[in-house]
Structure formats: C-alpha cells, structure tokens
Specification:
The protein is built from twelve helices and eleven strands. It is of the alpha/beta class. The strands form two sheets. It has an eight-stranded mixed sheet, sandwiched between helices. Strands 5-7-6 form a three-stranded parallel sheet.
C-alpha cells in the first residue's frame, strides 16, 4: 500500500511543478496542413497513459483504425469505478484515479478481481450496442501489438497481460495479436540505439534495448514495410492544436502538437497516418522532443508513405504530469467518441485528410 500511496501522490502532484510551463507566452505559427491523407487505414500507438489512449481511440473509431500498439498499458476501461453508473463529475474521476493507480498500474487490487477482463468486455459491448463507440465487428480484424518490459515497475506485466486477454475475448484472433514481454526494458519506449540504458525508467522514457520497436509495430500492423531511413528527410512541423479544441473547455490538451511529414506526403502521395501518443511526463514541456525524434517512427515514415501525428496532452492542477485522460478527468464520456481528447485528435485526422489546396 505504501507503493500505491506514493504513486497516487505522484499523479496528483502540486500545481507549482508546472506553473512555469503554463505561463509560456510563445504562440504557435503553423496550422496542421491538408495533405489528402487516407485516414481509413489509420494506426495508433502509445506508452503508459498514451497506451490507454491509443486503445480508447482505436475502440472508439475502430472503423478507421487498422491496428494499435499498447506499450505498458492495460485493458480499455480498466480505471472506470463501479460507481460510474450512479455518479459523475470530479468525485467520480477521483475514484477512477485511485483505481487506475492501484488496480490498473500496480496490480495491487488483483485479490479483488481488478482488472476484471470479462466485465470490461461486457462494458465495451454495451457501449457499442448504444452506438457510443464503433461496432465491434470492425475491431476484430485489427492487428494489436502489446509490450511489457521485464523491469517495468510502473505498469507491471500482469496489467499488459490483462490487455492481451481483453482483446482476445473481444474476438481479435490470436494470429492478429503480438505480445512482446522478453525485453529487460523499464517503463519506456524502446529503440535500437537511442535513449537511456534498456532497464531504466526515467525521462525522456526512451531506452536503448537493441530493438526497433517502432519498426516492429508498423510491420505488425501494416505487414512488410520498406526499409527504414538512416535519417528522416521530411519535416517535423509544430502546429497549433487550439482550432481542434473548439467547443471543449476541459480538454487537457496543449497549445501545440507536432506532425512528421515525409517529402512525398507533402507533395502528391496519398499517405496513411500513424498517431503516436506520448506517456505521462513525456510531452515536450516535460521531456523535450526525444519521443518525437528518437522513437524511430519518422525513420520508417519516408519510405512507407506514413504521416506521423504526435498530439500533446498538457499539465494541469488535476493532471500535473500531462497524462492522457484514461480515468475521466476531462469528461464522463472519456471512453467514447464524445471524449474531448478523442474528438480533438479525430478532428486532426480530418484536417490531414482534406484535399491539398
């Protein structure tokens, strides 16, 4: 329980830790460009809170998502409290947060049946039946990659195993599921040659395990890929996220995001989109651009007609580490197509899909 309490305090934090960042006055200068992208074969990935968000986006919009990568994350809806049907608002979000940390990261509630994979599957089916997420029939053809580092003490391997079981019980064939759990990695995104030592868990949460995780993810989702480039030749474009936030006051998103655009995608090629969600304390305000530039996604993008979208979540008093919303701090609808962060990122996809001017 001491570990759980420490983790909860870490998540809650103190507003002073991010006040300096919130006061930054620079204004973004670029808009997300219209690139005539094919968003019908979108893929998503994420680490930690980003892994939960990747799963939430996939399930909410499975009709346009070809596959997902869940790195150090658990099953969809894991944090939702048993009181979700009878209460709402900040009180429910606080209960969800306690369950998230203890039951969906540390696995400290296993004796009480958390995560309950069968219950989560039934909840997902009910959301689909109510039309709040896409039909599950469009999910079962997806390819899903899951990863748990052997030295991860933040989201322990049993939680990722529960996510694997969740997808299997939803009907995703085992032939479409990949679970990598034999790497000595800490709580981090894994690369072939970039970042900290493999076993580390520390900013910027990118580690060198002699394993090209980005490449493996894209191959598992899309099939055989053209060889990666030694150096990306496209553009890392910082864009204004604010136009996509219209209508939402409590969205938890940064002013800026980044998109990587290969030269061919900027000109005439019809490209697909991969959405890469950072983890807690891994956005640029907290950890610089290591996840964006060192993950390896951009290296694969040039030769494979892929636009890489790096949306960014923001720190706030209720979310000092800039985590994605997987416990309901933005809305009671955080798991559905109406979730602020899901809708905002979906609007970004629609912008990328607009015809070139």
């Amino acid at each position: 329980m001491k570990r759980a309490a420490t983790a909860l305090v870490t998540w809650l934090g103190i507003a002073a830790l991010f006040a300096a960042h919130a006061a930054r006055a620079e204004e973004p200068t670029a808009s997300l460009p219209a690139l005539a992208a094919d968003i019908s074969e979108t893929s998503v990935s994420g680490i930690s809170s980003g892994a939960y968000m990747a799963g939430q986006f996939q399930i909410a919009h499975s009709q346009i998502v070809a596959g997902a990568a869940i790195i150090a994350g658990g099953p969809y809806g894991c944090a939702e409290s048993a009181f979700a049907d009878v209460m709402s608002g900040p009180g429910l979000a606080f209960l969800n947060l306690s369950k998230a940390v203890n039951g969906c990261m540390l696995n400290a509630l296993a004796l009480w049946g958390v995560p309950d994979v069968d219950l989560l599957v039934e909840k997902t089916k009910k959301l689909a039946d109510a039309g709040r997420i896409d039909p599950l029939s469009s999910l079962v053809t997806d390819h899903v990659y899951l990863f748990s580092g052997a030295n991860d003490r933040t989201v322990v391997p049993a939680i990722v195993t529960a996510a694997y079981e969740y997808y299997k019980r939803l009907g995703v064939p085992e032939s479409n599921l990949t679970f990598v759990s034999d790497m000595p990695a800490g709580h981090a995104f894994v690369t072939e040659a970039e970042g900290l030592s493999c076993e580390m868990t520390d900013k910027p949460y990118v580690v060198d395990c002699d394993y090209d995780q980005a490449g493996d993810i894209l191959k598992r989702i899309y099939g055989t890929e053209a060889p990666r480039a030694a150096t990306p030749t496209g553009t890392f474009l910082e864009f204004d996220q604010r136009p996509f936030q219209e209508g939402f006051t409590n969205h938890g998103m940064e002013k800026r995001g980044v998109v990587y655009i290969p030269p061919s995608c900027a000109e005439s090629t019809t490209c697909r989109v991969h959405i890469a969600y950072h983890g807690c304390a891994q956005n640029r305000a907290a950890a610089g651009d290591a996840f964006i530039r060192e993950s390896g996604y951009a290296n694969w993008a040039d030769a494979n007609a892929l636009i890489i979208l790096f949306p960014e979540a923001a720190a706030s008093p209720v979310n000092p580490q800039g985590c994605w919303d997987w416990w309901g701090y933005t809305s009671d609808d955080y798991l559905t197509r109406k979730a602020p962060q899901i809708e905002i990122v979906h609007r970004m996809l629609e912008a990328l899909a607009k015809p070139r001017s």
